[in-house]
Amino acid sequence: MVARDDSVIRGSLIACLIFLVLSLCLNFFLWRYGNTVATQEQNMADRLKTVQETVVTLTTQADRMKAMLGVGSFTKEEIAEMKNQDNESADPDMKQIEKDYSIAMSYFPAETDSSERNYPKLPEYLAMTIRNRNGEVTSSRTEEKKIRDKATADVAIAQNQQKIAETERDNANKDRVKLSDQFDEDRDRMIKEKEDTKDKLVKKVKEYNSFRQQAVTETNKLTQKASQLQGTIDTQKFQLNELRSDQFETTQGEVRYVARGGNITTINLGSADALRPGITFGIIDADETRLKDAKVKATIQVTQIQGPHLAQARVVAFPEIRNPIIPGDKIFSPFWAPGRVIKIALAGDIDIDGDGRPDNEALKGQIRAAGATVAAEVTPAGSVSGKLDATIRFMVVGDDPELGNGPGDDDDNNVATIAAMGRIRAKASELGLTVIPAWKLQSYLRTLNDTLTTPLGSATRGGDFPPDPYSSGNRLPNTGAELYNAPAKRIQNGNKVLSP
Q: Three-state DSSP class for 283?
Protein backbone atom coordinates (compact mmCIF):
# COMPACT_ATOMS: atom_id res chain seq x y z
CA MET A 1 0.00 0.00 0.00
CA VAL A 2 2.87 2.22 0.86
CA ALA A 3 4.54 1.46 -2.44
CA ARG A 4 1.36 2.24 -4.29
CA ASP A 5 1.00 5.49 -2.49
CA ASP A 6 4.57 6.45 -3.47
CA SER A 7 3.87 5.60 -7.10
CA VAL A 8 0.78 7.71 -6.98
CA ILE A 9 2.69 10.58 -5.48
CA ARG A 10 5.48 10.21 -8.06
CA GLY A 11 2.94 10.01 -10.80
CA SER A 12 1.24 13.08 -9.44
CA LEU A 13 4.53 14.94 -9.22
CA ILE A 14 5.52 13.95 -12.71
CA ALA A 15 2.12 14.93 -14.01
CA CYS A 16 2.45 18.27 -12.24
CA LEU A 17 5.91 18.82 -13.68
CA ILE A 18 4.72 17.96 -17.11
CA PHE A 19 1.75 20.29 -16.69
CA LEU A 20 4.05 23.03 -15.40
CA VAL A 21 6.43 22.66 -18.35
CA LEU A 22 3.54 22.70 -20.78
CA SER A 23 2.16 25.83 -19.04
CA LEU A 24 5.51 27.53 -19.33
CA CYS A 25 5.78 26.62 -22.98
CA LEU A 26 2.28 27.82 -23.59
CA ASN A 27 2.95 31.14 -21.76
CA PHE A 28 6.18 31.63 -23.75
CA PHE A 29 4.39 31.08 -27.01
CA LEU A 30 1.57 33.37 -25.93
CA TRP A 31 4.12 36.11 -24.90
CA ARG A 32 5.92 35.81 -28.21
CA TYR A 33 2.69 36.05 -30.08
CA GLY A 34 1.50 39.06 -28.03
CA ASN A 35 4.83 40.84 -28.48
CA THR A 36 4.71 40.25 -32.21
CA VAL A 37 1.12 41.50 -32.40
CA ALA A 38 2.00 44.59 -30.33
CA THR A 39 4.94 45.32 -32.58
CA GLN A 40 2.77 44.93 -35.62
CA GLU A 41 0.10 47.19 -34.09
CA GLN A 42 2.73 49.86 -33.27
CA ASN A 43 4.03 49.64 -36.80
CA MET A 44 0.51 49.93 -38.10
CA ALA A 45 -0.11 52.98 -35.88
CA ASP A 46 3.11 54.63 -37.12
CA ARG A 47 2.17 53.88 -40.69
CA LEU A 48 -1.33 55.25 -40.02
CA LYS A 49 0.12 58.46 -38.54
CA THR A 50 2.47 58.80 -41.48
CA VAL A 51 -0.36 58.22 -43.88
CA GLN A 52 -2.50 60.80 -42.03
CA GLU A 53 0.29 63.37 -42.16
CA THR A 54 0.73 62.60 -45.82
CA VAL A 55 -3.01 63.00 -46.32
CA VAL A 56 -2.97 66.35 -44.45
CA THR A 57 0.02 67.49 -46.50
CA LEU A 58 -1.59 66.40 -49.73
CA THR A 59 -4.85 68.04 -48.67
CA THR A 60 -3.03 71.30 -47.90
CA GLN A 61 -1.17 71.08 -51.17
CA ALA A 62 -4.43 70.36 -52.97
CA ASP A 63 -6.07 73.40 -51.32
CA ARG A 64 -3.11 75.62 -52.28
CA MET A 65 -3.19 74.23 -55.80
CA LYS A 66 -6.94 74.98 -55.94
CA ALA A 67 -6.24 78.55 -54.75
CA MET A 68 -3.59 78.86 -57.45
CA LEU A 69 -6.22 77.72 -59.96
CA GLY A 70 -8.78 80.23 -58.71
CA VAL A 71 -10.66 78.21 -56.09
CA GLY A 72 -9.90 80.35 -53.07
CA SER A 73 -7.26 83.04 -52.76
CA PHE A 74 -4.01 83.96 -51.06
CA THR A 75 -3.18 87.20 -49.27
CA LYS A 76 -0.27 89.32 -50.42
CA GLU A 77 1.68 88.29 -47.33
CA GLU A 78 1.17 84.56 -48.10
CA ILE A 79 2.33 85.09 -51.68
CA ALA A 80 5.43 86.93 -50.39
CA GLU A 81 6.15 83.98 -48.03
CA MET A 82 5.97 81.52 -50.95
CA LYS A 83 8.76 83.42 -52.70
CA ASN A 84 11.04 83.59 -49.66
CA GLN A 85 10.28 80.26 -47.83
CA ASP A 86 13.32 78.52 -46.31
CA ASN A 87 11.72 75.32 -44.85
CA GLU A 88 13.99 72.43 -45.92
CA SER A 89 11.56 69.75 -44.70
CA ALA A 90 8.85 70.87 -47.15
CA ASP A 91 8.26 69.12 -50.45
CA PRO A 92 10.84 70.48 -52.92
CA ASP A 93 8.43 70.15 -55.79
CA MET A 94 5.74 72.07 -53.90
CA LYS A 95 8.26 74.71 -52.90
CA GLN A 96 9.21 75.19 -56.53
CA ILE A 97 5.55 75.30 -57.56
CA GLU A 98 4.77 77.96 -54.93
CA LYS A 99 7.87 79.96 -55.86
CA ASP A 100 6.87 79.88 -59.53
CA TYR A 101 3.35 80.90 -58.49
CA SER A 102 4.61 83.88 -56.48
CA ILE A 103 6.76 84.97 -59.41
CA ALA A 104 3.80 84.62 -61.77
CA MET A 105 1.55 86.58 -59.42
CA SER A 106 4.11 89.40 -59.30
CA TYR A 107 3.07 90.24 -62.88
CA PHE A 108 -0.20 91.60 -61.51
CA PRO A 109 -0.13 95.29 -60.43
CA ALA A 110 0.02 96.06 -56.71
CA GLU A 111 -3.58 97.33 -56.60
CA THR A 112 -4.99 93.97 -57.89
CA ASP A 113 -7.26 92.32 -55.33
CA SER A 114 -6.09 89.01 -53.76
CA SER A 115 -9.07 87.14 -55.19
CA GLU A 116 -7.91 88.08 -58.69
CA ARG A 117 -4.38 86.71 -58.21
CA ASN A 118 -4.46 83.14 -59.70
CA TYR A 119 -3.39 81.21 -62.77
CA PRO A 120 -6.73 81.42 -64.63
CA LYS A 121 -6.70 85.26 -64.33
CA LEU A 122 -3.06 85.54 -65.36
CA PRO A 123 -3.49 84.76 -69.09
CA GLU A 124 -6.40 87.18 -69.29
CA TYR A 125 -4.34 89.89 -67.58
CA LEU A 126 -1.30 89.15 -69.76
CA ALA A 127 -3.44 89.17 -72.91
CA MET A 128 -5.00 92.48 -71.90
CA THR A 129 -1.56 93.85 -71.03
CA ILE A 130 -0.20 92.71 -74.41
CA ARG A 131 -3.11 94.36 -76.18
CA ASN A 132 -2.48 97.56 -74.25
CA ARG A 133 1.23 97.36 -75.04
CA ASN A 134 0.44 96.76 -78.69
CA GLY A 135 -1.78 99.83 -78.67
CA GLU A 136 0.97 101.82 -76.97
CA VAL A 137 3.51 100.50 -79.50
CA THR A 138 1.20 101.53 -82.34
CA SER A 139 0.73 104.96 -80.75
CA SER A 140 4.47 105.21 -80.18
CA ARG A 141 5.19 104.36 -83.80
CA THR A 142 2.66 106.93 -84.94
CA GLU A 143 4.20 109.49 -82.60
CA GLU A 144 7.65 108.47 -83.78
CA LYS A 145 6.61 109.07 -87.38
CA LYS A 146 5.23 112.49 -86.43
CA ILE A 147 8.42 113.34 -84.56
CA ARG A 148 10.54 112.15 -87.47
CA ASP A 149 8.50 114.24 -89.90
CA LYS A 150 8.71 117.24 -87.57
CA ALA A 151 12.45 116.70 -87.16
CA THR A 152 12.86 116.63 -90.91
CA ALA A 153 10.89 119.87 -91.19
CA ASP A 154 12.88 121.41 -88.32
CA VAL A 155 16.13 120.42 -89.99
CA ALA A 156 15.00 122.12 -93.18
CA ILE A 157 14.02 125.20 -91.24
CA ALA A 158 17.31 125.10 -89.34
CA GLN A 159 19.22 124.88 -92.60
CA ASN A 160 17.36 127.93 -93.89
CA GLN A 161 18.03 129.71 -90.60
CA GLN A 162 21.69 128.75 -90.86
CA LYS A 163 21.90 130.34 -94.28
CA ILE A 164 20.22 133.47 -92.96
CA ALA A 165 22.57 133.46 -89.94
CA GLU A 166 25.59 133.15 -92.21
CA THR A 167 24.34 136.11 -94.24
CA GLU A 168 23.80 138.11 -91.07
CA ARG A 169 27.22 137.05 -89.79
CA ASP A 170 28.84 138.46 -92.92
CA ASN A 171 26.88 141.67 -92.50
CA ALA A 172 27.86 141.77 -88.80
CA ASN A 173 31.52 141.34 -89.68
CA LYS A 174 31.23 144.30 -92.04
CA ASP A 175 29.51 146.33 -89.31
CA ARG A 176 32.17 145.23 -86.81
CA VAL A 177 34.95 146.52 -89.02
CA LYS A 178 33.08 149.79 -89.43
CA LEU A 179 32.41 150.05 -85.68
CA SER A 180 36.02 149.18 -84.91
CA ASP A 181 37.19 152.10 -86.99
CA GLN A 182 34.64 154.32 -85.30
CA PHE A 183 35.73 152.99 -81.89
CA ASP A 184 39.34 153.90 -82.64
CA GLU A 185 38.24 157.42 -83.50
CA ASP A 186 36.10 157.68 -80.36
CA ARG A 187 38.91 156.30 -78.22
CA ASP A 188 41.34 158.93 -79.49
CA ARG A 189 38.71 161.59 -78.85
CA MET A 190 38.04 160.29 -75.32
CA ILE A 191 41.76 160.19 -74.55
CA LYS A 192 42.00 163.82 -75.53
CA GLU A 193 38.88 164.68 -73.47
CA LYS A 194 40.34 162.72 -70.53
CA GLU A 195 43.48 164.79 -70.62
CA ASP A 196 41.43 167.97 -70.79
CA THR A 197 39.22 166.78 -67.93
CA LYS A 198 42.28 165.91 -65.88
CA ASP A 199 43.63 169.42 -66.35
CA LYS A 200 40.24 170.87 -65.35
CA LEU A 201 40.08 168.55 -62.33
CA VAL A 202 43.50 169.69 -61.13
CA LYS A 203 42.32 173.25 -61.48
CA LYS A 204 39.06 172.53 -59.64
CA VAL A 205 40.95 170.72 -56.86
CA LYS A 206 43.11 173.78 -56.36
CA GLU A 207 40.02 176.00 -56.32
CA TYR A 208 38.29 173.57 -53.90
CA ASN A 209 41.26 173.52 -51.53
CA SER A 210 41.33 177.30 -51.57
CA PHE A 211 37.57 177.48 -50.98
CA ARG A 212 37.77 174.89 -48.20
CA GLN A 213 40.52 176.87 -46.50
CA GLN A 214 38.37 179.95 -46.71
CA ALA A 215 35.36 177.97 -45.43
CA VAL A 216 37.37 176.62 -42.50
CA THR A 217 38.55 180.11 -41.66
CA GLU A 218 35.01 181.48 -41.94
CA THR A 219 33.63 178.56 -39.91
CA ASN A 220 36.14 179.20 -37.16
CA LYS A 221 35.16 182.87 -37.12
CA LEU A 222 31.44 182.00 -37.03
CA THR A 223 32.03 179.39 -34.33
CA GLN A 224 33.93 181.90 -32.24
CA LYS A 225 31.21 184.47 -32.80
CA ALA A 226 28.50 181.89 -31.94
CA SER A 227 30.37 181.05 -28.74
CA GLN A 228 30.54 184.72 -27.87
CA LEU A 229 26.83 185.17 -28.64
CA GLN A 230 25.95 182.06 -26.62
CA GLY A 231 27.95 183.44 -23.73
CA THR A 232 26.10 186.73 -24.09
CA ILE A 233 22.77 184.87 -24.17
CA ASP A 234 23.68 182.88 -21.06
CA THR A 235 24.80 186.04 -19.28
CA GLN A 236 21.61 187.88 -20.26
CA LYS A 237 19.49 184.88 -19.29
CA PHE A 238 21.19 184.79 -15.90
CA GLN A 239 20.71 188.53 -15.47
CA LEU A 240 17.08 188.19 -16.56
CA ASN A 241 16.47 185.43 -14.01
CA GLU A 242 18.14 187.58 -11.36
CA LEU A 243 15.90 190.48 -12.31
CA ARG A 244 12.80 188.27 -12.20
CA SER A 245 10.86 188.46 -8.97
CA ASP A 246 8.52 186.07 -7.37
CA GLN A 247 6.08 188.97 -7.22
CA PHE A 248 3.53 189.67 -9.95
CA GLU A 249 5.11 192.30 -12.11
CA THR A 250 2.36 194.11 -14.01
CA THR A 251 -1.08 195.53 -13.30
CA GLN A 252 -3.99 194.74 -15.62
CA GLY A 253 -6.44 197.59 -14.99
CA GLU A 254 -7.61 200.33 -12.66
CA VAL A 255 -10.57 201.31 -10.48
CA ARG A 256 -13.08 203.56 -12.25
CA TYR A 257 -15.65 204.26 -9.51
CA VAL A 258 -16.23 203.51 -5.83
CA ALA A 259 -19.83 203.21 -4.62
CA ARG A 260 -21.94 202.04 -1.67
CA GLY A 261 -19.67 203.39 0.94
CA GLY A 262 -16.62 201.63 -0.44
CA ASN A 263 -18.22 198.18 -0.67
CA ILE A 264 -18.66 198.15 -4.46
CA THR A 265 -16.21 199.24 -7.18
CA THR A 266 -16.17 199.26 -10.96
CA ILE A 267 -13.07 198.52 -12.99
CA ASN A 268 -12.07 199.18 -16.61
CA LEU A 269 -12.01 195.49 -17.60
CA GLY A 270 -14.95 193.61 -19.13
CA SER A 271 -16.16 191.12 -21.69
CA ALA A 272 -13.74 192.33 -24.38
CA ASP A 273 -10.88 191.43 -22.01
CA ALA A 274 -12.24 187.88 -21.45
CA LEU A 275 -12.98 188.74 -17.82
CA ARG A 276 -15.36 186.50 -15.90
CA PRO A 277 -17.06 186.76 -12.50
CA GLY A 278 -15.12 185.34 -9.58
CA ILE A 279 -11.68 186.75 -10.53
CA THR A 280 -9.96 188.28 -7.50
CA PHE A 281 -7.77 191.41 -7.86
CA GLY A 282 -5.47 193.21 -5.45
CA ILE A 283 -5.60 197.05 -5.33
CA ILE A 284 -2.52 199.27 -4.99
CA ASP A 285 -2.16 203.03 -5.04
CA ALA A 286 -2.11 204.69 -8.46
CA ASP A 287 1.21 206.44 -7.70
CA GLU A 288 3.07 203.17 -7.09
CA THR A 289 5.70 202.66 -9.80
CA ARG A 290 7.14 199.26 -8.78
CA LEU A 291 4.65 196.51 -8.15
CA LYS A 292 7.34 194.53 -6.35
CA ASP A 293 7.55 197.16 -3.59
CA ALA A 294 3.86 198.14 -3.65
CA LYS A 295 1.54 197.42 -0.74
CA VAL A 296 -1.78 195.72 -1.37
CA LYS A 297 -4.33 198.09 0.13
CA ALA A 298 -7.49 196.05 -0.55
CA THR A 299 -8.86 192.98 -2.34
CA ILE A 300 -11.85 192.93 -4.69
CA GLN A 301 -13.71 190.17 -6.52
CA VAL A 302 -15.57 190.56 -9.83
CA THR A 303 -19.32 189.95 -9.42
CA GLN A 304 -20.82 191.23 -12.69
CA ILE A 305 -19.66 191.98 -16.24
CA GLN A 306 -21.34 195.22 -17.38
CA GLY A 307 -19.69 196.02 -20.71
CA PRO A 308 -16.76 195.44 -23.04
CA HIS A 309 -14.46 197.32 -20.62
CA LEU A 310 -16.59 197.65 -17.53
CA ALA A 311 -17.20 195.26 -14.64
CA GLN A 312 -18.51 195.48 -11.09
CA ALA A 313 -16.60 194.05 -8.14
CA ARG A 314 -17.21 193.84 -4.41
CA VAL A 315 -14.61 194.57 -1.78
CA VAL A 316 -13.41 191.42 -0.08
CA ALA A 317 -10.77 192.95 2.20
CA PHE A 318 -11.18 196.66 3.10
CA PRO A 319 -8.39 199.21 3.09
CA GLU A 320 -7.22 201.15 6.09
CA ILE A 321 -9.19 204.32 6.84
CA ARG A 322 -6.26 206.54 6.01
CA ASN A 323 -5.76 204.89 2.58
CA PRO A 324 -9.22 204.30 0.98
CA ILE A 325 -9.95 202.96 -2.49
CA ILE A 326 -10.14 205.81 -4.97
CA PRO A 327 -10.66 205.92 -8.75
CA GLY A 328 -7.40 205.47 -10.61
CA ASP A 329 -6.00 202.88 -8.19
CA LYS A 330 -4.30 199.99 -10.02
CA ILE A 331 -5.56 196.42 -9.88
CA PHE A 332 -3.69 193.19 -10.56
CA SER A 333 -4.28 189.44 -10.40
CA PRO A 334 -1.51 186.87 -10.52
CA PHE A 335 -3.78 184.33 -12.25
CA TRP A 336 -5.49 186.37 -14.92
CA ALA A 337 -4.38 188.20 -18.04
CA PRO A 338 -6.58 189.75 -20.76
CA GLY A 339 -7.54 187.23 -23.42
CA ARG A 340 -5.48 184.31 -22.12
CA VAL A 341 -5.26 181.82 -19.28
CA ILE A 342 -2.32 181.86 -16.90
CA LYS A 343 -0.47 178.54 -16.88
CA ILE A 344 0.94 177.18 -13.62
CA ALA A 345 3.16 174.18 -12.95
CA LEU A 346 3.22 172.23 -9.68
CA ALA A 347 6.49 170.64 -8.58
CA GLY A 348 6.71 167.97 -5.87
CA ASP A 349 4.33 167.27 -2.99
CA ILE A 350 2.75 170.51 -1.78
CA ASP A 351 1.28 170.62 1.74
CA ILE A 352 -0.88 173.71 2.22
CA ASP A 353 -2.65 172.78 5.48
CA GLY A 354 0.35 171.51 7.47
CA ASP A 355 -0.98 167.99 8.05
CA GLY A 356 2.05 166.32 6.46
CA ARG A 357 0.11 165.02 3.45
CA PRO A 358 0.23 166.44 -0.10
CA ASP A 359 -2.68 168.71 -1.09
CA ASN A 360 -1.90 168.92 -4.82
CA GLU A 361 -5.44 167.99 -5.91
CA ALA A 362 -7.07 170.60 -3.66
CA LEU A 363 -4.55 173.20 -4.85
CA LYS A 364 -5.34 172.42 -8.49
CA GLY A 365 -9.03 173.00 -7.80
CA GLN A 366 -8.27 176.38 -6.22
CA ILE A 367 -6.07 177.36 -9.18
CA ARG A 368 -8.82 176.51 -11.66
CA ALA A 369 -11.32 178.45 -9.55
CA ALA A 370 -8.99 181.48 -9.76
CA GLY A 371 -9.11 181.35 -13.57
CA ALA A 372 -5.66 179.79 -14.11
CA THR A 373 -4.83 176.28 -15.33
CA VAL A 374 -2.34 173.61 -14.26
CA ALA A 375 -0.30 172.96 -17.41
CA ALA A 376 2.30 170.57 -15.95
CA GLU A 377 3.00 168.51 -12.85
CA VAL A 378 6.39 167.29 -11.66
CA THR A 379 6.53 164.29 -9.30
CA PRO A 380 9.09 164.15 -6.46
CA ALA A 381 11.05 161.66 -8.57
CA GLY A 382 11.43 164.24 -11.34
CA SER A 383 9.04 162.82 -13.97
CA VAL A 384 6.89 165.42 -15.75
CA SER A 385 3.27 165.05 -16.81
CA GLY A 386 2.11 167.68 -19.26
CA LYS A 387 4.32 170.10 -21.17
CA LEU A 388 6.90 172.11 -19.26
CA ASP A 389 7.82 175.06 -21.52
CA ALA A 390 8.25 178.83 -21.55
CA THR A 391 4.49 179.47 -21.90
CA ILE A 392 4.05 178.59 -18.19
CA ARG A 393 3.96 181.70 -15.98
CA PHE A 394 4.63 180.29 -12.50
CA MET A 395 6.10 177.13 -11.01
CA VAL A 396 4.85 176.39 -7.49
CA VAL A 397 7.17 174.24 -5.37
CA GLY A 398 6.62 172.64 -2.00
CA ASP A 399 9.01 172.37 0.91
CA ASP A 400 11.98 170.02 0.51
CA PRO A 401 11.95 166.94 2.76
CA GLU A 402 14.13 167.06 5.87
CA LEU A 403 17.18 164.83 6.25
CA GLY A 404 18.26 162.86 9.32
CA ASN A 405 14.75 162.21 10.70
CA GLY A 406 14.24 158.68 9.39
CA PRO A 407 15.94 155.41 8.49
CA GLY A 408 18.77 155.33 5.99
CA ASP A 409 16.51 154.36 3.10
CA ASP A 410 14.21 157.34 3.77
CA ASP A 411 17.19 159.69 3.83
CA ASP A 412 18.38 158.28 0.52
CA ASN A 413 14.93 158.84 -0.98
CA ASN A 414 14.83 162.40 0.43
CA VAL A 415 18.27 163.15 -1.02
CA ALA A 416 17.11 161.88 -4.43
CA THR A 417 13.93 164.01 -4.15
CA ILE A 418 15.91 167.15 -3.25
CA ALA A 419 18.28 166.55 -6.18
CA ALA A 420 15.35 166.07 -8.56
CA MET A 421 13.67 169.25 -7.33
CA GLY A 422 16.96 171.10 -7.79
CA ARG A 423 17.13 170.01 -11.40
CA ILE A 424 13.51 171.08 -11.94
CA ARG A 425 14.21 174.54 -10.44
CA ALA A 426 17.24 174.91 -12.74
CA LYS A 427 15.10 173.92 -15.72
CA ALA A 428 12.43 176.43 -14.68
CA SER A 429 15.04 179.18 -14.40
CA GLU A 430 16.39 178.25 -17.83
CA LEU A 431 12.87 178.55 -19.30
CA GLY A 432 12.32 181.88 -17.58
CA LEU A 433 9.56 180.65 -15.22
CA THR A 434 8.83 182.46 -11.96
CA VAL A 435 9.35 180.02 -9.08
CA ILE A 436 7.18 180.78 -6.03
CA PRO A 437 6.66 178.79 -2.84
CA ALA A 438 3.36 177.20 -2.00
CA TRP A 439 2.61 179.60 0.88
CA LYS A 440 2.81 182.61 -1.43
CA LEU A 441 0.36 181.01 -3.87
CA GLN A 442 -1.86 180.09 -0.95
CA SER A 443 -1.96 183.71 0.24
CA TYR A 444 -3.44 184.72 -3.13
CA LEU A 445 -5.91 181.84 -3.14
CA ARG A 446 -7.10 182.25 0.43
CA THR A 447 -10.27 184.11 -0.59
CA LEU A 448 -11.30 181.69 -3.33
CA ASN A 449 -14.21 179.85 -1.68
CA ASP A 450 -17.95 179.55 -1.94
CA THR A 451 -18.59 182.65 0.18
CA LEU A 452 -16.78 184.73 -2.40
CA THR A 453 -18.43 183.14 -5.43
CA THR A 454 -21.82 183.65 -3.78
CA PRO A 455 -21.10 186.37 -1.21
CA LEU A 456 -24.13 185.81 1.06
CA GLY A 457 -24.53 182.07 0.62
CA SER A 458 -26.25 179.81 -1.91
CA ALA A 459 -29.53 181.73 -1.65
CA THR A 460 -28.01 184.96 -2.96
CA ARG A 461 -29.60 186.37 -6.11
CA GLY A 462 -27.92 188.36 -8.84
CA GLY A 463 -30.24 191.26 -8.02
CA ASP A 464 -28.58 191.61 -4.64
CA PHE A 465 -25.68 193.33 -6.41
CA PRO A 466 -27.18 195.68 -9.06
CA PRO A 467 -24.70 197.87 -10.99
CA ASP A 468 -24.60 201.52 -10.06
CA PRO A 469 -25.84 203.89 -12.76
CA TYR A 470 -23.14 205.62 -14.73
CA SER A 471 -22.64 209.30 -14.09
CA SER A 472 -20.28 211.76 -15.63
CA GLY A 473 -17.23 212.93 -13.81
CA ASN A 474 -14.12 211.27 -12.57
CA ARG A 475 -15.68 209.64 -9.53
CA LEU A 476 -18.98 209.00 -7.79
CA PRO A 477 -19.76 210.35 -4.37
CA ASN A 478 -18.06 208.24 -1.76
CA THR A 479 -18.82 208.08 1.92
CA GLY A 480 -16.28 206.71 4.27
CA ALA A 481 -18.63 206.20 7.17
CA GLU A 482 -18.99 202.50 6.44
CA LEU A 483 -15.24 202.05 6.71
CA TYR A 484 -15.43 202.84 10.42
CA ASN A 485 -18.07 200.12 10.84
CA ALA A 486 -16.19 197.37 8.89
CA PRO A 487 -15.12 194.46 11.07
CA ALA A 488 -11.46 194.52 11.94
CA LYS A 489 -10.98 191.04 10.56
CA ARG A 490 -11.86 192.29 7.05
CA ILE A 491 -9.27 195.06 7.02
CA GLN A 492 -6.47 194.49 4.49
CA ASN A 493 -3.33 193.56 6.41
CA GLY A 494 -0.21 194.13 4.35
CA ASN A 495 0.12 192.07 1.19
CA LYS A 496 -1.68 189.12 2.75
CA VAL A 497 -5.20 188.66 1.40
CA LEU A 498 -7.56 188.04 4.29
CA SER A 499 -10.42 185.57 4.32
CA PRO A 500 -13.88 187.20 4.44
A: strand
